[in-house]
Each structure stands twice: as structure tokens, then as C-alpha cells.
Write a structure and sequence with these properties.
The protein is an alpha/beta fold and 310 residues long. The chain contains twelve helices and eight strands.
């Protein structure tokens, strides 16, 4: 086994409540050597002061005016010196041996392999996280990964991945015009650029969810535009690599679900998503939603039902 350096890139914007715990989890990694690159993205709270307390030979702090998470991650990539890259949001956590598990597996297979890992949601206490396996948590090709995500409505949050730097360079930088689902679009490109995705069941990460001001919960028009555009790009990436009936059907269902997510906040974008689904042949799968939503939708149509069950 080599002593390849791993760079842990942490974009941070107003994460003072959680940043110290995130940095501690990065510093506790059993893999050595590691470097930690914190990119403060114009925080207005005490995030930068907290990050400065941890500065050392292992941890560098970069500052920039607020430009968004994608721009912060690109800044971190430009500064990173490692042969492997671990992205870690400023409110998420890594198990101590997370990186060790993934580097060990990748190095036995080759430099174009991408590693995924087990992850679970939590709010305050990581011990509450429930690691329930999903359909995308297995060895897959990039095409199979996207097909599965679209079909089963699964995801992989940024910290679950570990990637060789050369693989990320081949996929290109983060799209700084995106906000919501920028990670979905980015890792779609990375997955499709990889020779394969290997799932490391013991490589655990913790995804802090249901925060009141989280980007993933935003419903403003800019966020809805980003969701629509990121989905358009992700579907285009998949169909460029594979236009099989399975991929087209999975993409049609992804558009159908996106139409659901965009309504009623962005009705024009929702209609555009539904049109895109029909152009791919449509999908017989039901819209997302509870049993009550499904029953109501059959009676009055899904758009009216969506207003009763937001």
C-alpha cells in the first residue's frame, strides 16, 4: 500500500454551529497522510474564526467572497495537493476509518475507480443515524448508478464518495452556475468518467439533515431553476453514454419526479419537465407521494392533489 495523500475539502458558509465537529472528524481519520482544506465562502458568523483555531500544517484555511458551494469546492480543488479527494460539507461527519477503507479498496483496483460508501442521515446526534442500505449501495458502473438513482429515487451525498484526483480532473470542475443539486450533476460526470464504482460498506459518513436554512430545502425560484437545469444536464450526461431503453425509461421517470418537485413553486419549469418526460416516452410509474396523495391524484389530478399534500 502506498502513502498517497488524501485532501479533505470542506466548503463552509455560516456553519459555526457544526464546523468544529466536522473538523474533528476530518482530523481523526486513520489514513495518513491527509491534508484538510477549509474554504470559507464569505461566512457572516463565527465559522472563519473557528476554522482559524484549527490551522496547522495539516489544515489550511482559504477565504473567498460568498460565491456558493460549487465555487468553494473548486477553490479547494485548486489548492489541494492530494492524490485522492474527499469532499466534506461543513455540517457532516466521517467515521474515523472511512477514508482508509476506501483508499485501500481503490488502490487494489486502479486509478480510474470511484469509491462510494455507507451513509445515513442524522439531525443532532450521529448515534441516531440509521444505516439502511439502498439500491445504489453496491458495485456498479456509472451508467448503472444513474439508472438506479432515477428508478429508485436514491442518492449519494458528497461525503460518501472518495475519488482519485486524476478521475476528478477528467470529469471537469463543479458547475458554479448551479446551487440546488450541484452535487448530483457533478458526481454524475465523475461516475460516468470512472471505470467502475466500488461500494465500501464499512466506509461510513453522516449526513446532517432537516436543518432550517439548508440549501437542499430551499424552494425559491433560483433553487428551482438550478434543480431543473441540473436534472437536464444529468440526464443528458447519462443518455450521451447510454441511450438504451432502460436509460430512457429511467430518465423519463426522473423528469416526471422533477415535475412533481417543481410544482407548485415553479409551474412553468414543472410543465417543461413533464414535457421532457413525455418526449422520452413517458413513465407508467406513479408520482412520488403518500398513499393519500396517490388516491387524491386519481380523483382530481396530480397538480391539484399536490397543493393539498405539499
Amino acid at each position: 500500500m502506498t502513502n498517497a495523500c488524501v485532501s479533505i475539502i470542506i466548503p463552509c458558509h455560516n456553519a459555526a454551529l457544526w464546523l468544529a465537529a466536522t473538523l474533528e472528524s476530518a482530523l481523526a481519520q486513520t489514513w495518513t497522510p491527509t491534508e484538510i482544506v477549509v474554504v470559507d465562502d464569505g461566512s457572516a458568523d463565527e465559522s472563519l474564526m473557528i476554522a482559524r483555531r484549527y490551522e496547522s500544517e495539516r489544515l489550511r484555511v482559504i477565504t473567498q467572497p460568498n460565491a456558493g458551494a460549487a465555487a468553494a469546492r473548486n477553490a479547494g480543488l485548486r489548492a489541494a495537493r492530494g492524490e485522492y479527494i474527499q469532499f466534506l460539507d461543513a455540517d457532516d461527519l466521517l467515521a474515523p476509518d472511512k477514508i482508509t477503507c476506501q483508499v485501500t479498496r481503490i488502490e487494489s483496483l486502479g486509478p480510474s475507480v470511484l469509491a462510494s460508501g455507507a451513509w445515513a442521515r442524522f439531525q443532532q446526534n450521529p448515534s441516531d443515524a440509521d444505516f439502511t442500505a439502498e439500491a445504489n449501495q453496491c458495485d456498479l458502473t456509472g451508467v448503472e448508478f444513474l439508472q438506479t438513482n432515477f428508478e429508485q429515487r436514491t442518492m449519494m451525498h458528497p461525503a460518501a464518495w472518495l475519488a482519485p484526483r486524476a478521475l476528478l480532473d477528467s470529469a471537469g470542475p463543479w458547475d458554479e452556475t448551479l446551487s440546488l443539486n450541484d452535487d448530483g450533476e457533478y458526481f454524475a460526470r465523475v461516475a460516468l468518467s470512472s471505470s467502475r464504482i466500488v461500494y465500501c460498506v464499512d466506509a461510513r459518513s453522516y449526513y446532517r439533515s432537516n436543518l432550517p436554512d439548508s440549501l437542499s430545502g430551499r424552494k425559491d425560484h433560483r433553487a428551482m431553476q438550478s434543480l431543473h437545469r441540473s436534472m437536464a444536464l444529468t440526464i443528458a450526461h447519462l443518455l450521451k453514454h447510454d441511450s438504451s431503453p432502460r436509460s430512457r425509461a429511467a430518465a423519463a421517470y426522473a423528469w416526471k419526479c422533477t415535475a412533481f418537485e417543481l410544482y407548485p413553486g415553479a409551474p412553468a419549469l414543472s410543465r417543461a419537465a413533464e414535457t421532457a418526460a413525455h418526449e422520452l416516452g413517458g413513465s407508467p410509474r406513479p408520482f412520488p407521494g403518500s398513499g393519500r396523495f396517490q388516491h387524491t391524484a386519481r380523483l382530481i389530478g396530480w397538480r391539484l392533489a399536490r397543493r393539498f399534500f405539499p
